[in-house]
Amino acid sequence: MTGGEQNVVALFGSGEPAEGEADYELARAVGRKLAELGYAVANGGYGGTMEASAAGAKAAGGRTIGVTCSIWKSAANRFIDRSVQTDGLPQRVQRLIELGTAGCVVLPGATGTLVELATVWEMTCKRLRPRRPIVCVGRHWRPLVEMMASARPGCERFVAMIERPDELEQYFPARVQ
Fold first, then answer.
1. Phi and psi (nearest 5°) for 136?
2. Which of 15, 47, 51, 98 has the highest CB neighbour number within 10 Å of its CB?
3. 150: which residues sit within 8 A by CB, 6+ positions away?
4. What pLDDT shows up at residue 172?
């Protein structure tokens, strides 16, 4: 992956889940599906759903990018092909969004994932970035999207909700490899 890095999907999710936990296995399945469809996976590069999605992508022969942050001393997880280090959290979020040339997938998470979702969603609503898919997997973010839709009708059209990784192809069509 050099130059413009086409066909990259940025994944946002939690660093908490461990292997075998439902959110970890969901992330692994998402990474695998995206790689099978011909997309590289970019994520925060550390553990939890970041590790799981990278592991899934690698298992399917895909490429991975980890966007790490100098405020933490941890190295990128072992499934990352290329590491990009940023100086702070805002730069990390911005870099992940920039790398997501094909769009973004949002997995269950907490405040950090909320920042990532809110940032890419607002940038899309305000036309500060090209419109690309923002896809939330599972039901975790549904109440938030519904709440925002009641506060700002129409904003929900920028965020897709799916239940299973096999539905990703609706938003990320298979790429010729």
1. -95, 130
2. 51
3. none
4. 98
Tokens describing residue 50: 């970041």
Closest CA to 26 of 160, 175, 139: 139
CATH class of 8-169: alpha beta
Handedness of CA 29, 18, 62, 46 (dihedral sign): positive
For the chain, what is the radius of gyration of the CA atoms?
Answer: 15
Residue 70, CA distances (Å) to 21, 48, 84, 87, 145 in order: 28, 19, 10, 5, 32
Alpha helices in 37-105, H assignment, sequence order: 49-59, 89-99
Q: Give pLDDT, residue 6.
A: 67
**Is the full-model pTM beyond 0.70?**
yes
Where exactly are the structural domains of the chain?
Answer: 8-169
Low-confidence ranges of the chain (pLDDT < 50): 1-3
